[in-house]
Amino acid sequence: MATGTLALPTPETIAKYEPVIGLEVHVQLATNTKIFCGCPTSFGAPPNTNVCPVCLGLPGALPVLSKAAVEMAIEAGLALNCRINPFSRLARKNYFYPDLPKGYQISQYDQPLAEHGSLDIEVNGEPKRLGITRVHIEDDAGKSSHEGFRDSDRYTYVDLNRSGTPLIEIVSEPDMRGSDEAYAYLTVIKQVLQFVGVSTCDMEKGHLRCDANVSVRLKGAEKFGVKAEVKNLNSFRFLKLALDYEIARQVGIIESGGKVAQETRLYNPDTGETVGMRSKEHAHDYRYFPEPDLVPVRVSDRWLGEIRSRMPELPSARKKRFIDTYGIREYDADVLTSTRALADYYEAAAKASADPKAAANWVMGDLLGALKAEGKEIHDSPISPGQLGELVTLIAKGELSGKLAKEIFPRMLATGQAPGLIMEREGLRQISDAGALEKIIDDVIAANPKQVEQYKGGKTAVAGFLVGQIMKATRGQANPGAVNEMLRKKLA
User: Fold this and answer.
1) Structural domain includes residue 1
2) pLDDT, tens digit, 9 for 90 and up, residues 361-390
3) pTM of the model
């Protein structure tokens, strides 16, 4: 890690301190239109084309709150175990920036939509519950792009396509005590919101962004230290690296007799350092006041009940049910509930199969491996859940051996055809008929008298050779269990 002019303390010195971390996570909601107008939220449109007088902040244009955005925000709040407030109010957060055309952001301040939630994480096998202070709705700003380095050729371009897209901000309690916990928290946030379907959480498109508030204190101390805010962390890796550096930086300042400044900082991935951006703002700096053009949001019990009734099963509950219902390992359940699409695929395959445990192995191993090699996701799979379940069932019934199934699987991937169809067409059905196997076994015994004598002389390992000859004679189609049993009896 580059450290510039700052000498970072040793790990032993850092270990004397306890970091205190809280995250502010901004999530773009998966609505088709913006939060206060009908402009599309599609990504990648030409600059300044998905705009109208409302999101351009033109005089006289009035906002209209999107019901879809509010419902998605409520779903997010419920998924994060929050209390949904029956009354909340929108407010103007005033600040000036080139990509904020109104000169203020419509957000929520003292009366948010949802409060007092929690999220369970696990780090190194240890569970921990982290508090969530609030979930509130707001509109996004535009995007500034900078080109050039010298004053004579430096330009800033503003694209307002993103201006007015609906966001929720999830503010945690300062409950995290290390970068690993922050990483786990953000991972679970992303998983839960994707499961509920309120956001794609695509960090490359800016749908999930994070600000981290960090301070340090001596272990055992009760009072919090002075915090710095690290802004605009747009990857899990950068979050962890930025926190580790910032913790070390603050410890170094304190150990050298200095004082940590309350400020906003940015993480530079090229140097691995955080750098000062500006002094940290306080709420009064934004001059919040109630938004005069929008009425308060009232959530009735009936409306909340309707939203709650259509909520999907959350990942933690689904993981537990997979373990209880299908008898799979906890690790397997973790993998299979990592996304809703994967969980849906596995469950459909398990229900279509005679062996849910084997179905889990096929999904996690052969299927995901093949899809990854082709750069595909589970929803791109040419093999349907029903077809995978059929393959597992054919094995369980003894109509296919595991070896033959491994031959059929690539053909399923290539053609999208059902395994039974491929098996019959290419004559790959496993031979379990005792009459058919007996003749083949007798022929192999007759053709290998030396090995038979060795077996009878006590070298039982040669049975493996004889089994191999039988499998070769049947092109791998003989039922291995039946072959071993019949061969053992004949040799005895």
Assistant:
1) no
2) 999 999 999 999 999 999 999 999 999 999
3) 0.84
